[in-house]
Amino acid sequence: MDDDFNAAVEGFQAKMAEIAGLQAARALLLGVGTTARRRVRVTVNADGIATDIKFSGAIGELTPAELADAVTAASRAAVLDVARKAKELMAPLDVDQAEAPKLDDLFATITSLRDHLG
Fold it and tell me: Which InterPro entries does the record associate with it (predicted)?
C-alpha cells in the first residue's frame, strides 16, 4: 500500500511541475496583430494586454475613426494570436477526466495516509 501511495504522490508532484512549467512558458507568450495594409501593428502579452503599438508612415491618411478601427482590429487579431498560442502550448497537458473516486476509496486513502504519517 505504501508503494501505491508513494507512486501517487510522485505522480501528483510530476503533474504539478509540468503545470508550473507550462504556466511559466505561457506567461512569456506574445501575440501580434496588424491591419490589412500594415498601417497598425499591436503586440499583446499573454493576458491580452497591449504592450506595444506601432504605426506606419501612411497612418496620416486615416481619419480618426479609421485609425480607431485599425487599432481595434489589430488588437483583436493580436489577442486571437496569443490565445491560439496558449491553446497550442497547453494542449499536451493531459487532463484527467476520470470520474470522481468513490467515498469508500477516499476513506481508505485517508486511512492509508494516517498510517503512513503515523
Answer: YbaB-like_sf, YbaB/EbfC
DSSP character for 39?
S
CA atoms within 13 A on the CB side of 93: 18
Instruction: Enter the C-alpha cell of residue 79.
Output: 489577442
Q: Which residue has the cell 511541475?
A: 17
The 10s digit of each residue's pLDDT in 22-34 is: 999 999 999 999 9
> What are the E-state strand segments in the chain?
31-34, 40-44, 50-55
Structure pTM? 0.69
Spatial separation of the C-alpha atoms in residues 29 and 82, rounded to whole Å: 7
Rounded-to-integer distance, Cα 63 and Cα 60, Å? 8
